[in-house]
Amino acid sequence: MPVRSESASNFGFSHVISSTTNMIARAVLSNHYHRDHPTERVIPERDPATTKAWMVGSGIGCLASAAFLIRDAGVPGENITIFEEFGVHGGSLDGSGSAEDPRGYVIRGGRMLNLSYLCLYDLCKWIPAYEPYFKEKISNGEDIKTVYDEIMDFDERIKTEAHARLVDAEGNKIDVTTMGFDNQDRLDMLAMLSISEEELGTKRIDECFSEHYFTTNFWYMWQTTFAFKPCHSAVEFKRYLHRFAHEFPRIETLAGVDRTVYNQYDSIVLPLMNHLKSLGVKFVPLTKVADFEYDRTHPHTMTVKALKLVKTDSGEEETLEIDPVNDLVFFTNGSMTSSAGLGDMDTPAPIKLEPDGTFQLWENVSREFPTLAGNPHNFLNRFEEAQWMSFTVTLRDPTFLRLNEMWTTNSPGTGALVTFKDSKWRLSYVIAKQPHFRNQPEDVAVFWAYALHTDVEGDYVAKPMRECTGREMFEELLGHLKKPFESVGATDADWETIRDTTVVVPCMMPMITSMFLTRTHEDRPPVVPHGSTNLAFVSQFAEIPDDVVFTVEYSTRAARIAVCELMSLDESKLPPPIYKAGHSPAYLIQSLKSFMS
């Protein structure tokens, strides 16, 4: 931890204003981001009609790659094959279960969308709407035709305006209209905004701020909104500050968050998969790509000529030869939900440390091409830094939702994360608009909770979170909600009803924020390494300068970059520049006001 400076803390208010203004100006006028300077490309010209594409993984990176190949490059859908190691497609954008299932529904995580997600929203404009949620006309009098229309119309109707963003140990809602910064915090924030990524190097967040910073309202809200830990990379934290600077003035309400109608599997993955299938794309589940074979004709290039396949249900092996000149491989190198494990009401979630096939394959590629394919080992075997846990709650009675709405004054879908800032687990929960699943009955509700500190005992359950069953995790949440709910009239009968009609599924995710770990610039490969002729990396572990990982936008942008480069598309097909409204004078002024609060 840096030592707090008394002289800095005693700066006059006018001096801080002047320093803040000057530092913001320097950050905007100077280019502090690392830029790659590509060497001569070795990618051949390709005929879209005869090009075949092979996708390793069925997460959003590969699904988007297939979409952009069809839409932008003119590759026929029947020329695209998507291999998936597991039985369910969609990667980390998952959602499963049913009301009839004894353990209810499961969502390992939830994703917030934002107006700055230019590549994702562009993709959603191409995906036909799948059973639109609102059957009536949208505001401009036209039918909902695309997933983008559906999202925009939904968020126009269901506004996010959190009324209980932070809660203290006594169950009181905290006034979050002020960020809680002192002068040193402001100077540290501005220093973070203006310093270059090269200067930050492998520093952690907690090496750049004083201890007081981690007690501010801003930190509690920013941390839990994006799942940062003090041990995470200062570079990634800096990127987030730049990327979402336009959200500083409304971080306390999360009013800038866009939501999908249902969970992201039902709202994005399912419609996209259906559209791709209708265009001829082939999906092959339970098939692991265990390794690649390479064309060694040119020693300094990376060219895949065969895929070694393993059927995960039978163990059957096959070598699939591909055209090393005309064919393409899009590779999900690593997954944030790798090794995730589920428990149930009476069983803790297992802790599985062995990475899945995507990491294993990335390790193989890295051994073959250590200067081109990044360093997967940096993101492995750092369990305590990378992990956290979530749990999905299925309610078969309306009592919990009724009490929650009375206390928060937010109906389902209009609030945001509720964070118990003093909780030992750093526990948060969020209730989406119901239904959250397409197959969810009206008398069932589903919500999601997560916590960042799983190695310590709870405030109400004398166990570390990682040792708790679903029942025990729910008891911890109810302990924090006891005073809030009783303040709006909760009775003993209400508590009994809630406990008797609720099912909880815990989920341990050992790799969930491994993208946030400290790293060097070389640890993540470029989307298309400069020596690659037909292989692209389209995961959260590829490097896209300036952009932020742990977003659906990141993988979607990687997909679009990959298609543009490997198919040598013209400038009109390039992805739009990364959204940087935080660099506009209007947003800078608003951010400055937030810094001063």
Radius of gyration, Cα only, in angstroms?
Answer: 24 Å
Structural class: alpha/beta
CATH architecture descriptor of the domain at 53-94 and 262-338 and 353-367 and 524-573: 3-Layer(bba) Sandwich
User: How many strand elements?
Assistant: 17
CATH topology descriptor of the domain at 53-94 and 262-338 and 353-367 and 524-573: FAD/NAD(P)-binding domain
Low-confidence stretches: 1-40
Walk across the major sheet and give the strand order: 5-13-14-15-12-16-11
What profile does the largest beta sheet have? 7 strands, mixed
Mean pLDDT score, rounded? 91
Beta-strand percentage range:
5-15%
Global geometry: globular
Report the total helices: 17
Q: Which superfamily, in CATH terms, is the homologous superfamily of the domain at 53-94 and 262-338 and 353-367 and 524-573?
A: FAD/NAD(P)-binding domain
Percentage of helical residues? 25-40%
What's the end-to-end separation, in Å? 24 Å
CATH top-level class of the domain at 53-94 and 262-338 and 353-367 and 524-573: Alpha Beta
